[in-house]
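Q: Could you predict the 3D structure of Anti-sigma factor antagonist?
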Amino acid sequence: MDLRSEQLAEGIEKISLVGRMDSVGGHDINTRLAALVASRKMLAVVDMSEVSFLASIGIRTLVVNARAQSLRGGLMALANPQPVVAEVLKMAGIDSIIPVYPDVDSAFSALVASSAESR
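A: Sure. Here are the predicted structure tokens for Anti-sigma factor antagonist:
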């Protein structure tokens, strides 16, 4: 599993996940994602477009990091999950904990709007 990060406009961090978030892939990125997301207040869009499989370890990784970000006063959103991954997120109720958007642009706009409201 691979993790790439880039800074977008408005101070939003785009984190792209690539691969399978199963026991091996989830373990591979868990520490790196936590170091990036849970260590400081931020607005983060996690691009899930290249995640082909999502298991419980991957769900846990996403939820733990979203909650840590929330506790710091930041926000994390998921974007563009493949249909099978979107179904897992919905069945597990993750979409009620972490907002899920159909694409990165929608997630970006929602984070910008949320940030403006909280000022």
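Q: Anything worth pointing out?
A: The first helix runs from residue 23 to 37.
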